């Protein structure tokens, strides 16, 4: 099987692991920088070109598209889908998951547990917005933020008002969420492939920090999740339409709540914490499901 891996950096841990796992199972791989791809968009003979050559004859494509290149990256993936190449995650699902507000609204509609979340436009509504999510302390998030960047914990009413008004003054979109104090700076990353959680780890924020991202000094350890947490993670991935997802869950007093559904979860933390060959499980999923033209949307989304 010929597998394309859309990644801007072939030396990244996750990209290298996917290449190793695919080759170990007898597949041919090619790492492709999405920003160097260009497309011929035509009715009868669409094509994809890369560094002066036409790309063809791929059986599957694994998107590892960074948040900063979502728009162009999903356009490239959509072109592969139009060509009938099987995507591990579809372009429509990635776009859906990358929109934090849209993804929360979709999860809410399906009854998935979520932290109380507010969204507003006008600074006149700040006081009621804070009251709506239960008051301070609360968490303020930039909609476009990743890896914990643009996430602020406001511990008092005055601090919350000041931060929200500052962000609104900069004309950026933000979410305001209740602070799940009982989580104690920890979350659970559930790695979902298909309809099951194949690995899970607890991420604990370093002392004095509430963000548990490994990029911010958090630590990862193996954890046993409950049946309710397992069900929440698989349902959340399914609602997003993702075959592979990293679902981040907090343990709250009212059950598991989903913080985010990541369409391109990293492999380094989860593989080291659990000792599982997650990359091989991703390749195995492709082997079982990759059929030319087997894409729900065929790039139409």
Automatic annotation (TrEMBL):
* Domain ATP-grasp, first and last residues per copy: 104-287
A family per Pfam: Rimk_N
Kindly list the positions annotated as binding Mg(2+) 2: 260, 262
Comment on bound cofactor: Binds 2 magnesium or manganese ions per subunit.
Needed cofactors, names only, are: Mn(2+); Mg(2+)
Q: Which SUPFAM superfamilies match?
A: Glutathione synthetase ATP-binding domain-like
User: Per the record, GO CC terms?
Assistant: cytoplasm
Q: Where does Mn(2+) 1 bind?
A: 248, 260
The residues listed in the UniProt record as binding Mg(2+) 1, with positions renumbered to this chain, are 248, 260
- Tell me the residue numbers annotated for binding ATP: 141, 178-179, 187, 211-213
Q: Which UniProt keywords apply?
A: ATP-binding, Ligase, Magnesium, Manganese, Metal-binding, Nucleotide-binding, Protein biosynthesis
> Which Enzyme Commission number(s) are listed?
6.3.2.-
Q: Which domain of life is it from?
A: Bacteria
A Gene Ontology molecular function term for this protein is:
ATP binding
Record PROSITE patterns: ATP_GRASP
For this protein, the record's Gene3D superfamilies field holds: 3.40.50.20, ATP-grasp fold, A domain, ATP-grasp fold, B domain
Q: Where are the transmembrane segments?
A: none
Q: Where does Mn(2+) 2 bind?
A: 260, 262
Its GO biological process terms?
Answer: SOS response; translation
Q: Which family, according to the similarity comment?
A: In the C-terminal section; belongs to the RimK family.
Q: Which NCBIfam families match?
A: PRK10446.1 (NF007764), rimK_fam (TIGR00768)
Query: What name does UniProt use for this protein?
Result: Probable alpha-L-glutamate ligase
Q: Which organism is it from?
A: Thiobaca trueperi
